[in-house]
Amino acid sequence: MPTFTFEQIRGVAVQVFAALGCPPDEAEIVGDALARANLAGHDSHGIIRVEQYARLVKEGSIVPGGPTTTERETACTALLDGGWNFGQVVARRAVELGIRKAREFGSGTISVKQSNHLGRLGEYTLMAAQEGMLCTATVNNHGRGNLVAPFGGSDGRLATNPISFACPGPDRPIVVDITTSVVAEGKVRILKNAGKQAPEGWLIDSNGNPTTNPQDLYGPPPGAILPFGGAVGHKGFALSVMVDILSGALSGAGCSHSSTCRLGNAMFFHILDPEKFVTRDEYDHWVSTLQTHIKGSPPAPGFSEILMPGEPEFRTEDRRRRDGIPVDDVTWQQFKACAAGIGVQFEL
Amino acid sequence: MPTFTFEQIRGVAVQVFAALGCPPDEAEIVGDALARANLAGHDSHGIIRVEQYARLVKEGSIVPGGPTTTERETACTALLDGGWNFGQVVARRAVELGIRKAREFGSGTISVKQSNHLGRLGEYTLMAAQEGMLCTATVNNHGRGNLVAPFGGSDGRLATNPISFACPGPDRPIVVDITTSVVAEGKVRILKNAGKQAPEGWLIDSNGNPTTNPQDLYGPPPGAILPFGGAVGHKGFALSVMVDILSGALSGAGCSHSSTCRLGNAMFFHILDPEKFVTRDEYDHWVSTLQTHIKGSPPAPGFSEILMPGEPEFRTEDRRRRDGIPVDDVTWQQFKACAAGIGVQFEL
Fold first, then answer.
1. Contact between A248 and B106 using a beta-carbon 8 Å cutoff
2. DSSP state, A302?
3. Residue ranges of the domains in chain B?
4. Do B77 and A107 touch (CB under 8 A)?
5. Topology annotation, domain A70-182+226-295
6. Are strands B203-204 and B162-167 parallel, antiparallel or unpaired?
7. Burial of B174 (0-12, 13-18, 19+ CB in 10 A)
8. Which residues in chain A come in under a pLDDT of 70?
9. H helices present in chain A, as ranges
10. Can the peptide bond before residue A220 be classed as cis, meaning omega within 30 degrees of 0?
11. CA distance A96 to chain B (A)
């Protein structure tokens, strides 16, 4: 399997996005975000996405250079229209604005509509944490992506509706980044393509019965992914509803309703400056104490240590910085072909 | 089983709290909150708590009439010190302040320390929703209440760390109110006292192995409750960490660290006025569309309909308003004895 450095992947990805019509600073942002996803081990959000993004640009769904405009604003809130630019560009602008508001007024709450796919939500809460802030974020699909059943239901009515939270930690930030479904659709697709069964508790068929056959998700007729929670799946469902409303209703982009409406990422960010509440020392003391306390739990059978939220990704990042980022042949050839198709040639 | 009206329970509870030294308006607030918990079917947070609260007042842990003071404040944030008053009193004041800030500036983020037990967190997010607001809230125990294992751990290191969200809905508010553990400790205690087994996936013993014996939670040595999520328990754990930091570090009250520190409820409220983002019509349209869409899912086997978050409690409330609130004999006799002990006599 070919292996590359972060800088190599970032460099060629930036070239491709520039060739797709992104202004230079925006090409840097999108290329960087995809390379970072590969670095953290989230290959499903890495350069495998370039082909899809290139297609969406050609179709006019993604508008490179599309302006981010402010529709409504108060001292500590704003509603932004992303101009259907890349979600990575729009999300960064939203977080930058939220950080500025939080620095001045203690908190910034930013709602965003008309943006494309932002990739990993945790990338943006982490960005705020690296500036010393606490950030909670949610995203929905502008009402589309009906893959997840409501609790007690038998078909997909909700998107995977993720929630993320990040804050400064004692050594590295603490980063929560989860879907409110048991699993993302991509993982089911991988099992289906590999001819493997899904674990119990992931899926129901079109009659609402539990199934381990990944094909049952796609049908026809389609089944659904379950909200997370297992026996208490009403909790994951409840969080999904919360995410849908914060993202879709507060922005006006739309809550889950149709599988054929225009796909986008409606976003919600709440950014807080802890120093407007307590001293930095108090904050640091308690988060550090919490982390030490949690990590002190003797590992249960089958575990060797307790990892904080976000720690698995940081470890992958360290390893891939050292050993390189493996990219499977199919993805690499597709990426090169896509690049060549828009006039970008490179040898790595 | 004796059955009472909401007004009867509320009336006697208010008398008891007045006799315990609460100023009249505060006795009304605490009595009302407990009666409301009974009305909604959350009997574990209803008048069964009076005996415990009376003991805490006598011990000096709860300070009736304790002042709520503002330690830090910006246009849209505040850190409050609850003066160790009843949590019900402090939480209402925090939400009232958050609503005022949200009305003026779009959002109000309120952090609270030095408060006692607030009862049901959903009571306060609902209060904001009834004023037209969206409200997210979390609470921890000031660092105490180590009952829940971290993902991969074998002993209790976190409290049940609940999260709640409420917002206006098409007929009634939508109310999310969940612990980030599989279950609250009280439910395990009830099974233990009844000599029953716990469902699979709730508990681990002191070696970190799954168990269905409720006694294993208490030991000695004690086991732990699992974070919610089943096979993806890292998600419930991640949310618990987020709740602990928002509640305990932002307020300075303390994150989970010790089972012997002073018990309190540190609170976090984020209140938003949707009309600072979109029009009320846009907001209403999308939440109504979402609810209709979700409820349209054909029920899975074993279910007769899809209920929105909060709907089960509203139904219990309707039924108990009509048929009365049943209170078991033991609880009622304890309540009467407790009342008599502080000079409150009544016949119902």
1. no
2. T
3. 1-65+310-348, 68-182+226-295
4. yes
5. Ribosomal Protein S8; Chain: A, domain 1 (3.30.1370)
6. unpaired
7. buried
8. none
9. 6-19, 24-39, 50-59, 87-105, 122-129, 185-193, 215-218, 233-244, 280-295, 311-323, 329-341
10. yes
11. 18
Which of the 8 DSSP states describes residue A36? H
Answer yes or no: do B290 and A232 touch at CB < 8 A. no
Which residues in chain B are contacts of A282 at CB distance < 8 A?
Answer: 249, 252
Encoded tokens for A89: 């560009």
Distance CA B136, CA B268 (A): 8
Q: Is A61 helix (H, G, I), strand (E, B) or coil?
A: coil
C-alpha A50/C-alpha A9 separation (Å) is 12
Q: Are B202 and B188 in contact (CB under 8 A)?
A: yes
A18 with A27: CB under 8 angstroms?
Answer: yes
Token pair for residue B28? 């009304």
pLDDT in tens, chain B (348 residues): 889 999 999 999 999 999 999 999 999 999 999 999 999 999 989 999 999 999 999 999 999 999 999 999 999 999 999 999 999 999 999 999 999 999 999 999 999 999 999 999 999 999 999 999 999 999 999 999 999 999 999 999 999 999 999 999 999 999 999 999 999 998 898 899 889 999 999 999 999 999 999 999 999 999 999 999 988 999 999 999 999 999 999 999 999 998 889 999 999 999 999 999 999 999 999 999 999 999 999 999 999 999 999 999 999 999 999 999 999 999 999 999 999 999 998 888
Looking at residue A88, its pLDDT comes to 98
Contact state of A272 with B153 under an 8 Å Cβ cutoff: no
**Cβ A152–B257 below 8 Å, yes or no?**
no
* DSSP-based helix, strand, coil % in chain A, nearest 5: 45, 15, 40
The predicted pLDDT at position B348 comes to: 81
* Least CB–CB distance from B231: residue in A151, A176, A199: A199
Check if the beta carbon of residue A332 is closer than 8 Å to that of residue A2: yes
Pick the CATH number of B1-65+310-348 from 3.40.50.700, 1.10.10.10, 1.10.1530.10, 3.40.1160.10: 1.10.1530.10
CATH architecture of the domain covering B68-182+226-295: 2-Layer Sandwich (3.30)
Q: Pick from A153, A250, A287: which is nearest to B297 by CB?
A: A153
Q: Across the interface, do B307 and A152 touch by the CB < 8 Å criterion? A: yes
| Nearest CB neighbour to A152, from listed B208, B293, B300 | B300
- What is the rounded CA–CA span in Å between residue A90 and residue A94? 6
> What are B280-292's pLDDT values in tens digits?
999 999 999 999 9
Closest residue in chain A to residue B109, using alpha carbons only: A107
Strands A163-167 and A174-178: antiparallel
Q: Calculate the alpha carbon distances from B263 to A153, A340, B21, B134 in Å.
A: 40, 64, 21, 29
